[in-house]
Design brief:
Blueprint (H helix, E strand, L loop, with lengths): L6 H19 L5 E7 L13 E7 L8 H9 L5 E6 L1 H5 L6 H8 L2 E4 L1
Parallel strand pairs: 2-3
Antiparallel strand pairs: 1-2, 1-4
């Protein structure tokens, strides 16, 4: 398999551009706070790297439908995982949540 030199840099630029677009567009849609978590937040970039975003949004949607709102409104141009919590769920999780632990301890707060 041929190796693409510079692909990591290109992928990083694509991820950064999409993240910046989200930061600009999402507050108008109700996002209060956003944390970047996962491999990209740790500076790890490879061909499969996606944006893992923990969002705080006041919503009445059930947890399993919340990411659909963001996917349909933003139409991501690159792989992204939206993990949406209400402020109360974020501040008072009912059980240990590894994703929230990552956001608190390793995540990068990119908005709010």
């Amino acid at each position: 398999m041929p190796m693409m030199f510079g692909f990591g840099g290109q992928r990083k630029q694509m991820l950064e551009a999409e993240l910046q677009r989200f930061v600009e567009e999402m507050p108008q849609l109700g996002m209060e706070t956003m944390y970047l978590v996962g491999p990209f937040a740790r500076g790890e970039v490879d061909p499969g790297t996606v944006l893992d975003l923990v969002l705080i949004q006041e919503t009445d949607l059930p947890s399993h439908r919340r990411a659909d709102f963001w996917t349909s409104h933003l139409r991501p141009r690159i792989g992204v995982n939206f993990f949406v919590y209400t402020r109360d769920e974020f501040e008072n999780p009912p059980a240990p949540d590894p994703l929230l632990h990552d956001a608190f301890n390793n995540g990068e707060r990119v908005h709010g």
